[in-house]
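As a warm-up, study this chain.
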Amino acid sequence: MVSERDIQLVRGFNRLVTRQVGALNDRYLGRRPLGESRLLFEVGESGATPRDLRARLGLDSGYLSRMIRSLRREGLVEARPSPADRRTKLLRLTRKGRAELRTLNRMSDEFAASALAPLSGKQRARLLHAQADVQRLLAVSMVTIERESPSSADARWCLGHYFTELRERFGLEEHRTLPAEEAELLPPAGAFLVARSNGQPAGCGALKTHAPGVGELTRMWVDRPHRGVGIGARMLDALEAEAVRLGHSAVRLYTERSLSEAQAMYRSRGYVEIPRYNDDPYATHWFEKRLGR
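Now compare it with the structure written out below.
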């Protein structure tokens, strides 16, 4: 049960932060609205689709469209057909947009430095440690993980980005890796889970039945802006709970050698490396974990 005192502490903290970052001003850092500035940060050097921006920032479609139009009118952003999906647009910064982003980054660094300058060394260390804790815990509190169809719009969005990232990291070709058919990822054979932050997709994971009493975890992915706050570990816990619910006593998974951060997480969560158990051409490490009930 959340106490009234705790609620008032959170509200007071929120008021302080919105004042500190200038969220109440019509021009962030004296240049443009905070929302537009954040869009420039998110589009960045690699570009982003409107769907990406909605998912990462939790923005209403109409509001996002108005901000994009404003940035395009100023010549800061341009839209081109996405190489990954010609039906959607990929937003990229123009030369003017890249210059504006450099200016915003410089001013943001100066603003952050000005907030730290009045503090002693010990006070800075305390503040930075506290901010890291607040960032991590707030991000975790905003995440939900739910079971749904792998053919839903959010599930397809996650899977599309999952395969895009693996293609970029080690050249995966989707048609060559082992499949996970929709029927395999629905009860009673399996489950597909979507993690959401602020109501927008932030990651996914799937469970299918490998053998009687043994589940297999696959399609584990967390969107880059949401990494480092424990979503991967929560997804792993949720998938293991699904495996127990379906009557499995163990789960297996496989991964590729370059995904070292994933391997470290699996080992930290009780997974042990086992001999090869499938012929996926991209697999280099195979893991298993016995499940308690």
